[in-house]
Structure formats: C-alpha cells, structure tokens
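Duplicate of #3305? Posting structure anyway:
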C-alpha cells in the first residue's frame, strides 16, 4: 500500500518559484515510478514530471521542461517538484502519484496511488 501527502502549494507571482513536497509511504519493495500531475479548472489532469524511484531517471512534459525539476530523497521517502519561472498557465491543483513498475508512463489512469492535491496559483 502507498500513501502520498502533498504540501507546499500557494500563491506566487509570474516569474517566481515554488517548491512542492510529497511524503511517500511505501510498504512494499516493489519498484515504483513517481510523478507529478496537475489539473487546471475545467481541464483534464495532465502529466507534469516523472521519476523512477530506484534509479532516479527523470522525464518531463514539454510545457515544463527546463523550468521544473522533479527529485526524490529515498532515505526520507520524499518526492519534490521545484518550479521556476512560473507562468499563469501553471495555475492548477498539483497531485503526487505513484505506480508499480519502472516504465515511463505519462497517463493518469496508469497510476494507482494519488495524493489529495495542493493548489498552486500564479498571479500578480
């Protein structure tokens, strides 16, 4: 069983930075892929960034590549998303997600476990 709890959302001005955290409890030794998704008002949930929990390789949506960085701290079971050069279109609820297996996956139905979400608002 996996439990995920996000934190760190808030209001930030365009061009600013914000960091999100996700506390991860993993009760098995299965290999997991972790990811951040976001859902803006009136839109479908969209992939943002992913990371293989074991090896640490990362992959990103084109819309955030070069601005966002996903990372993890295996020792403390934490997942992070550092967001720089934020734009108004980054405004959304951000979700931490996990799935068994190490295949690079970008679709939300492929992820089995979800956090409750944290709101990020980019506005002046």
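Output from current build:
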């Amino acid at each position: 069983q996996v439990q995920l709890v996000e934190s760190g959302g808030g209001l930030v001005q365009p061009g600013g930075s914000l960091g999100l955290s996700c506390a991860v409890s993993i009760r098995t030794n299965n290999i997991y892929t972790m990811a951040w998704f976001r859902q803006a008002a009136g839109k479908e949930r969209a992939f943002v960034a992913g990371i293989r929990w074991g090896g640490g390789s990362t992959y990103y949506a084109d819309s955030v590549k070069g601005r966002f960085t996903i990372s993890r701290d295996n020792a403390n079971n934490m997942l992070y998303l550092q967001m720089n050069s934020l734009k108004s279109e980054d405004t959304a609820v951000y979700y931490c997600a996990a799935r068994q297996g190490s295949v690079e996956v970008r679709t939300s139905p492929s992820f089995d476990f979800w956090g409750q979400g944290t709101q990020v608002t980019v506005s002046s």
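Confirmed duplicate; merging threads. The chain has no helices and eleven strands. The chain has a mean pLDDT of 93.
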